Amino acid sequence: MAMQLIEVVIGGVILGGLYALVAIGFNLQYGMARIVNLAYGEFLMGAAFAAFWTFTLLAVSPILSLALSVPVTFAANWLVYRYLMAPLVRRARDREQLEGETILATFGLLFVLRGAATLAFSANNRYYDYLGAPVRILGFTYAANRVLAFALACAFGVAVWLILTRTRFGAALRALAIDPVGARLVGIDVRGMSALAFAGGGALVAAAGTLVSTFLSFNPAIGIEFTMKALVVVIMGGVGKMMGSLVAGLLLGVAESLCSFYLDSGLTLAVAYALFLVVLILRPRGLFGTR
Predict the structure, then answer these.
(1) How does pLDDT run across 155-177, given as a tens digit for each residue?
(2) Where are the domains of the chain?
(3) What is the fold of 2-282?
(4) For residue 2, what is the enclosing H or E element?
(5) Is the CA virtual torsion 62, 63, 68, 71 positive or negative?
Protein backbone atom coordinates (compact mmCIF):
# COMPACT_ATOMS: atom_id res chain seq x y z
CA MET A 1 0.00 0.00 0.00
CA ALA A 2 2.82 2.38 0.87
CA MET A 3 4.53 1.62 -2.45
CA GLN A 4 1.33 2.38 -4.32
CA LEU A 5 1.03 5.69 -2.48
CA ILE A 6 4.60 6.66 -3.41
CA GLU A 7 3.95 5.77 -7.05
CA VAL A 8 0.79 7.87 -7.12
CA VAL A 9 2.55 10.83 -5.49
CA ILE A 10 5.43 10.72 -7.99
CA GLY A 11 2.88 10.60 -10.82
CA GLY A 12 1.19 13.63 -9.28
CA VAL A 13 4.50 15.50 -9.11
CA ILE A 14 5.07 14.79 -12.81
CA LEU A 15 1.62 16.18 -13.65
CA GLY A 16 2.08 19.08 -11.24
CA GLY A 17 5.24 20.15 -13.05
CA LEU A 18 3.14 20.86 -16.15
CA TYR A 19 0.57 22.74 -14.07
CA ALA A 20 3.39 24.81 -12.57
CA LEU A 21 4.73 25.72 -16.03
CA VAL A 22 1.26 26.80 -17.18
CA ALA A 23 0.80 28.84 -14.00
CA ILE A 24 4.20 30.53 -14.24
CA GLY A 25 3.26 31.85 -17.68
CA PHE A 26 -0.10 33.04 -16.36
CA ASN A 27 1.71 34.71 -13.47
CA LEU A 28 3.83 36.69 -15.91
CA GLN A 29 0.66 38.00 -17.52
CA TYR A 30 -1.40 38.55 -14.38
CA GLY A 31 1.20 39.20 -11.70
CA MET A 32 3.48 41.42 -13.79
CA ALA A 33 1.54 42.74 -16.79
CA ARG A 34 -1.62 43.03 -14.62
CA ILE A 35 -3.81 41.38 -17.27
CA VAL A 36 -6.38 38.72 -16.37
CA ASN A 37 -6.21 36.79 -19.64
CA LEU A 38 -9.12 34.34 -19.86
CA ALA A 39 -8.01 33.42 -23.39
CA TYR A 40 -4.66 32.19 -22.00
CA GLY A 41 -5.45 28.49 -22.47
CA GLU A 42 -6.45 28.97 -26.10
CA PHE A 43 -2.80 29.51 -26.96
CA LEU A 44 -2.01 26.22 -25.20
CA MET A 45 -4.64 24.60 -27.39
CA GLY A 46 -3.15 26.19 -30.51
CA ALA A 47 0.34 24.91 -29.69
CA ALA A 48 -1.06 21.43 -29.06
CA PHE A 49 -2.67 21.39 -32.51
CA ALA A 50 0.54 22.71 -34.08
CA ALA A 51 2.51 19.87 -32.49
CA PHE A 52 -0.11 17.36 -33.64
CA TRP A 53 -0.07 18.49 -37.27
CA THR A 54 3.71 18.80 -37.55
CA PHE A 55 4.10 15.30 -36.11
CA THR A 56 1.35 13.54 -38.07
CA LEU A 57 1.84 15.32 -41.41
CA LEU A 58 5.55 16.15 -41.44
CA ALA A 59 6.90 13.53 -39.01
CA VAL A 60 8.61 16.31 -37.04
CA SER A 61 9.12 15.66 -33.33
CA PRO A 62 6.81 17.78 -31.15
CA ILE A 63 9.87 18.82 -29.17
CA LEU A 64 11.40 20.28 -32.33
CA SER A 65 8.10 22.02 -33.09
CA LEU A 66 8.76 24.17 -30.00
CA ALA A 67 11.18 26.12 -32.18
CA LEU A 68 8.16 27.28 -34.20
CA SER A 69 5.26 27.42 -31.73
CA VAL A 70 7.07 29.29 -28.95
CA PRO A 71 8.27 32.33 -30.97
CA VAL A 72 5.02 32.46 -32.98
CA THR A 73 2.93 32.47 -29.80
CA PHE A 74 5.26 35.04 -28.23
CA ALA A 75 4.66 37.33 -31.21
CA ALA A 76 0.89 36.66 -31.19
CA ASN A 77 0.62 37.56 -27.50
CA TRP A 78 2.69 40.69 -28.01
CA LEU A 79 0.25 41.77 -30.73
CA VAL A 80 -2.71 41.00 -28.47
CA TYR A 81 -1.22 43.21 -25.79
CA ARG A 82 -0.23 45.95 -28.20
CA TYR A 83 -3.57 46.26 -30.01
CA LEU A 84 -6.17 44.89 -27.56
CA MET A 85 -4.80 45.28 -24.02
CA ALA A 86 -2.74 48.50 -24.29
CA PRO A 87 -5.78 50.73 -25.04
CA LEU A 88 -7.52 49.30 -21.97
CA VAL A 89 -4.39 49.90 -19.86
CA ARG A 90 -4.18 53.54 -21.00
CA ARG A 91 -7.77 54.40 -20.11
CA ALA A 92 -8.01 52.43 -16.84
CA ARG A 93 -8.17 54.67 -13.78
CA ASP A 94 -7.11 51.94 -11.34
CA ARG A 95 -6.23 48.26 -11.18
CA GLU A 96 -9.81 47.17 -10.44
CA GLN A 97 -11.09 48.81 -13.63
CA LEU A 98 -8.22 47.32 -15.64
CA GLU A 99 -8.91 43.81 -14.34
CA GLY A 100 -12.62 44.10 -15.04
CA GLU A 101 -12.17 45.35 -18.60
CA THR A 102 -9.43 42.85 -19.48
CA ILE A 103 -11.58 40.00 -18.16
CA LEU A 104 -14.39 41.04 -20.52
CA ALA A 105 -12.07 41.59 -23.48
CA THR A 106 -10.21 38.29 -23.11
CA PHE A 107 -13.47 36.46 -22.45
CA GLY A 108 -14.58 37.53 -25.91
CA LEU A 109 -11.18 36.64 -27.38
CA LEU A 110 -11.50 33.18 -25.84
CA PHE A 111 -14.64 32.42 -27.84
CA VAL A 112 -13.24 33.91 -31.03
CA LEU A 113 -10.14 31.69 -30.84
CA ARG A 114 -12.07 28.60 -29.81
CA GLY A 115 -14.63 29.13 -32.57
CA ALA A 116 -11.90 29.57 -35.16
CA ALA A 117 -10.18 26.38 -33.97
CA THR A 118 -13.45 24.43 -34.05
CA LEU A 119 -14.13 25.58 -37.61
CA ALA A 120 -10.60 24.76 -38.71
CA PHE A 121 -10.06 21.46 -36.89
CA SER A 122 -13.56 20.27 -35.82
CA ALA A 123 -14.49 19.47 -32.20
CA ASN A 124 -13.10 15.93 -32.31
CA ASN A 125 -10.44 14.76 -29.87
CA ARG A 126 -6.91 14.45 -31.21
CA TYR A 127 -4.14 12.18 -29.97
CA TYR A 128 -0.83 10.92 -31.30
CA ASP A 129 1.58 8.29 -30.05
CA TYR A 130 4.90 9.83 -29.06
CA LEU A 131 7.34 8.15 -26.68
CA GLY A 132 4.68 6.00 -25.09
CA ALA A 133 7.23 3.41 -23.99
CA PRO A 134 7.53 2.82 -20.22
CA VAL A 135 10.54 3.97 -18.20
CA ARG A 136 11.52 3.04 -14.65
CA ILE A 137 11.94 5.74 -11.98
CA LEU A 138 12.81 4.69 -8.42
CA GLY A 139 11.43 1.26 -9.16
CA PHE A 140 8.14 2.56 -10.59
CA THR A 141 6.99 2.63 -14.22
CA TYR A 142 5.87 5.78 -16.03
CA ALA A 143 5.34 6.71 -19.68
CA ALA A 144 8.44 8.26 -21.25
CA ASN A 145 6.44 11.13 -22.74
CA ARG A 146 5.23 12.23 -19.30
CA VAL A 147 8.74 12.07 -17.86
CA LEU A 148 10.13 14.06 -20.79
CA ALA A 149 7.36 16.64 -20.44
CA PHE A 150 8.14 17.03 -16.74
CA ALA A 151 11.88 17.39 -17.39
CA LEU A 152 11.35 20.08 -20.04
CA ALA A 153 8.81 21.88 -17.85
CA CYS A 154 11.44 21.97 -15.09
CA ALA A 155 14.01 23.31 -17.58
CA PHE A 156 11.67 26.11 -18.67
CA GLY A 157 10.83 26.91 -15.06
CA VAL A 158 14.50 27.11 -14.06
CA ALA A 159 15.22 29.35 -17.06
CA VAL A 160 12.44 31.76 -16.01
CA TRP A 161 13.70 31.76 -12.42
CA LEU A 162 17.26 32.55 -13.53
CA ILE A 163 16.05 35.38 -15.76
CA LEU A 164 13.95 36.89 -12.97
CA THR A 165 16.61 36.61 -10.27
CA ARG A 166 19.91 36.97 -12.13
CA THR A 167 19.35 39.64 -14.79
CA ARG A 168 18.55 43.35 -14.90
CA PHE A 169 15.59 42.52 -17.12
CA GLY A 170 14.27 40.20 -14.43
CA ALA A 171 14.78 42.83 -11.75
CA ALA A 172 12.74 45.27 -13.83
CA LEU A 173 9.94 42.70 -14.15
CA ARG A 174 9.93 42.11 -10.39
CA ALA A 175 9.78 45.85 -9.78
CA LEU A 176 6.86 46.02 -12.20
CA ALA A 177 5.04 43.31 -10.23
CA ILE A 178 5.57 45.11 -6.92
CA ASP A 179 4.66 48.66 -7.93
CA PRO A 180 4.17 49.86 -11.54
CA VAL A 181 4.13 53.51 -10.47
CA GLY A 182 7.39 53.16 -8.56
CA ALA A 183 8.91 51.24 -11.47
CA ARG A 184 8.06 54.10 -13.83
CA LEU A 185 9.65 56.61 -11.44
CA VAL A 186 12.99 54.79 -11.55
CA GLY A 187 13.07 54.80 -15.34
CA ILE A 188 11.53 51.45 -16.25
CA ASP A 189 9.50 51.38 -19.46
CA VAL A 190 6.39 49.98 -17.79
CA ARG A 191 4.34 49.64 -20.96
CA GLY A 192 7.12 47.94 -22.91
CA MET A 193 8.02 45.60 -20.05
CA SER A 194 4.36 44.71 -19.55
CA ALA A 195 4.09 43.79 -23.23
CA LEU A 196 7.17 41.57 -22.95
CA ALA A 197 5.87 39.92 -19.76
CA PHE A 198 2.52 39.25 -21.45
CA ALA A 199 4.23 37.83 -24.54
CA GLY A 200 6.59 35.76 -22.39
CA GLY A 201 3.63 34.21 -20.61
CA GLY A 202 2.19 33.27 -23.99
CA ALA A 203 5.47 31.64 -25.00
CA LEU A 204 5.47 29.52 -21.83
CA VAL A 205 1.90 28.35 -22.32
CA ALA A 206 2.78 27.38 -25.91
CA ALA A 207 5.61 25.25 -24.56
CA ALA A 208 3.21 23.69 -22.06
CA GLY A 209 0.65 23.01 -24.80
CA THR A 210 3.22 21.18 -26.89
CA LEU A 211 4.27 19.06 -23.90
CA VAL A 212 0.68 18.32 -22.87
CA SER A 213 -0.15 17.15 -26.40
CA THR A 214 2.43 14.36 -26.15
CA PHE A 215 0.46 12.41 -23.52
CA LEU A 216 -3.10 13.81 -23.36
CA SER A 217 -5.89 13.87 -25.92
CA PHE A 218 -7.11 17.37 -26.71
CA ASN A 219 -9.71 19.34 -28.67
CA PRO A 220 -10.56 23.03 -29.19
CA ALA A 221 -12.28 23.16 -25.79
CA ILE A 222 -9.20 22.19 -23.76
CA GLY A 223 -8.04 25.77 -23.29
CA ILE A 224 -10.56 26.91 -20.67
CA GLU A 225 -9.69 23.97 -18.41
CA PHE A 226 -6.03 24.95 -18.29
CA THR A 227 -6.86 28.64 -17.94
CA MET A 228 -8.91 27.94 -14.84
CA LYS A 229 -6.27 25.64 -13.38
CA ALA A 230 -3.61 28.26 -14.02
CA LEU A 231 -5.75 30.88 -12.25
CA VAL A 232 -6.31 28.52 -9.31
CA VAL A 233 -2.59 27.74 -9.01
CA VAL A 234 -1.56 31.41 -9.27
CA ILE A 235 -3.99 32.52 -6.57
CA MET A 236 -3.05 29.56 -4.36
CA GLY A 237 0.65 30.33 -4.69
CA GLY A 238 0.36 34.11 -4.57
CA VAL A 239 0.01 36.57 -7.45
CA GLY A 240 3.45 37.46 -8.80
CA LYS A 241 5.17 34.69 -6.79
CA MET A 242 6.87 32.24 -9.15
CA MET A 243 7.95 29.91 -6.34
CA GLY A 244 4.36 29.94 -5.18
CA SER A 245 3.21 28.83 -8.63
CA LEU A 246 5.70 25.97 -8.54
CA VAL A 247 4.64 24.72 -5.11
CA ALA A 248 0.92 25.17 -5.76
CA GLY A 249 1.20 23.46 -9.15
CA LEU A 250 2.90 20.43 -7.61
CA LEU A 251 0.34 20.39 -4.79
CA LEU A 252 -2.54 20.43 -7.28
CA GLY A 253 -0.97 17.66 -9.38
CA VAL A 254 -0.50 15.41 -6.33
CA ALA A 255 -4.05 16.13 -5.10
CA GLU A 256 -5.54 15.21 -8.48
CA SER A 257 -3.43 12.06 -8.71
CA LEU A 258 -4.50 10.91 -5.25
CA CYS A 259 -8.14 11.66 -6.11
CA SER A 260 -7.96 9.65 -9.33
CA PHE A 261 -6.42 6.68 -7.54
CA TYR A 262 -8.45 6.57 -4.34
CA LEU A 263 -11.76 8.15 -5.38
CA ASP A 264 -12.73 8.82 -9.01
CA SER A 265 -10.99 10.58 -11.90
CA GLY A 266 -14.21 12.48 -12.55
CA LEU A 267 -13.82 14.24 -9.20
CA THR A 268 -10.40 15.78 -9.86
CA LEU A 269 -11.85 19.18 -10.76
CA ALA A 270 -13.93 19.20 -7.57
CA VAL A 271 -10.85 18.32 -5.52
CA ALA A 272 -8.86 21.08 -7.23
CA TYR A 273 -11.44 23.71 -6.33
CA ALA A 274 -11.86 22.33 -2.81
CA LEU A 275 -8.10 22.67 -2.28
CA PHE A 276 -8.29 26.17 -3.74
CA LEU A 277 -11.05 27.16 -1.30
CA VAL A 278 -9.12 25.79 1.68
CA VAL A 279 -6.02 27.79 0.75
CA LEU A 280 -8.14 30.88 0.05
CA ILE A 281 -9.75 30.67 3.50
CA LEU A 282 -6.52 29.99 5.41
CA ARG A 283 -4.16 32.11 3.29
CA PRO A 284 -6.21 34.71 1.37
CA ARG A 285 -3.09 36.12 -0.32
CA GLY A 286 -1.77 32.69 -1.31
CA LEU A 287 0.82 30.36 0.15
CA PHE A 288 3.67 32.75 -0.64
CA GLY A 289 1.68 35.99 -0.72
CA THR A 290 2.56 38.91 1.53
CA ARG A 291 0.50 41.76 2.91
Answers:
(1) 998 999 999 889 998 898 888 88
(2) 2-282
(3) ABC transporter involved in vitamin B12 uptake, BtuC (1.10.3470)
(4) helix 2-27
(5) positive
